[in-house]
Design brief:
This protein is of the alpha/beta class and 398 residues long. The chain is built from twelve helices and 17 strands.
């Protein structure tokens, strides 16, 4: 409610007059969909594990790889006496964050894990996914089944997506559990294979690297430039800062990965670039098999939840219900106009309902509940283009 001064016209006597004017609630603000959270073993973790008396820094946001190195230590040269497995985890984490920024990421949250144990990883993930600006998480190079379960649990509870890595050298490419190292099914997870070849800044030599950090950078760039509903895949979805792949998939292997929900990284037909050739989740549910669709749904939910807290203590009456419907409708109309939803009209693209008899009963109202229902028609990636050619005596025609 706004208290304002009445205009002078029509007033009979000098004085101050107060007018009460109803004011609508602020519009829904789009939630952040371009920030990735990284969990892993940093250089400072490594030095602490090597017996140095160094405290592990707290979680923090970084805007470049240089900021990461300043806060958590530069990637060290491996020397004798250091644990090779621990060093590999440190290197995988640092090169993943560097790959994230090389591929268009502009902001990342870093949550150091005290170890590679699932419990320590879960604790770091919970800190990340509790943040309203983290919509994607990665745990570079940690592929154990219990770690993957932790990623699934934390992302599912927070409307986030986990980009996971498969094994560096799978025994087979035609079974999901063989590529990932264990059975896995989740709409909150997406996997990209095979591993990359990148230059190690500490040694200057090419090393194998899990692809999750580089892919997360591409996801962030695509969401910023095209929208969270655009699949980060295709000939324009090339990866930067890499020297190649550890394995070049055959046509047969590439064809096998799609139905498994695994996204292949392949050389482009020209130019020597490596491109992402898939945008699926590990869901068995066909309605949630596309990563862009899942991310759009998460984005809608997060945006509405973050922007409608004002309604919690408002009376559950027709006026409040109508206002909720209006602000959500305005938000979804904006998404439709941006090309995020199917349908020639808003009516075909979405619906929003809130009110007694529509989404709630009188008992719900008496209990203090407000229930809003909405539905959207998300765009799905067009993975197949069919060209029909008809040959005639006069030549070829479409």
């Amino acid at each position: 409610m706004l208290l304002g001064i009445l205009p002078a016209a029509g007033l009979m006597a000098p004085g101050v007059y107060v007018q009460e004017t109803a004011v609508g609630r602020p519009p829904i603000q789009a939630a952040d969909c371009t920030t990735t959270g990284f969990v892993g073993i940093t250089a400072v973790n490594y030095l602490a594990g090597a017996g140095k008396t160094i405290a592990i820094p707290a979680d923090r946001s970084v805007g470049s790889y240089a900021e990461l190195a300043a806060a958590y230590g530069a990637l060290p040269q491996q020397t004798s006496g250091m644990n090779p497995d621990q060093y590999q985890r440190v290197r995988a984490f640092h090169l993943a964050v560097r790959g994230y920024f090389d591929n268009g990421g502009t902001r990342a949250w870093i949550a150091p894990a005290r170890s590679a144990a699932a419990g320590d990883v879960r604790a770091a993930l919970l800190r990340l996914t509790s943040r309203h600006d983290v919509s994607v998480v990665a745990v570079p190079g940690l592929v154990a089944a219990d770690v993957r379960t932790a990623i699934h649990d934390c992302c599912s509870a927070a409307d986030a997506v986990g980009v996971i890595d498969g094994l560096e050298a799978p025994s087979s490419w035609n079974r999901r559990e063989a590529v990932l190292g264990s059975p896995c099914s989740s709409p909150a997870l997406a996997a990209f294979v095979p591993w990359l070849r990148v230059l190690d800044p500490a040694s200057g030599k090419p090393v194998s690297q899990p692809p999750s950090g580089h892919v997360c950078g591409l996801l962030a760039k695509t969401a910023s430039q095209r929208g969270v509903w655009k699949a980060a895949a295709g000939l324009t979805a090339s990866l930067s800062g890499i020297a190649g792949l550890t394995t070049t998939l055959t046509s047969t292997q590439k064809d096998q990965l799609g139905p498994l929900g695994l996204n292949p990284l392949v050389p482009a037909t020209s130019g020597g670039q490596i491109v992402v050739w898939g945008g699926r989740t590990l869901a068995d549910d066909p309605e949630r098999k596309y990563l862009a669709v899942v991310r759009l749904r998460n984005h809608v939910r997060r945006s509405i939840i973050q922007s409608t807290g004002w309604a919690v203590f408002e009376p559950s009456n027709a006026a409040t219900h109508a206002l909720l419907v209006q602000v959500v409708t305005d938000f979804l109309t904006g998404l439709h106009r941006s090309g995020a939803l199917m349908g020639a009209t808003a009516r075909e693209a979405f619906f929003v309902k809130c009110g007694v008899g529509a989404t709630m009963t009188s008992a719900d109202v008496a209990s203090g509940h407000k229930i809003l229902e909405l539905g959207i028609a998300p765009l799905k990636p067009a993975e197949f283009m069919i060209v029909r050619v008809r040959w005639t005596s006069a030549g070829a025609g479409t």
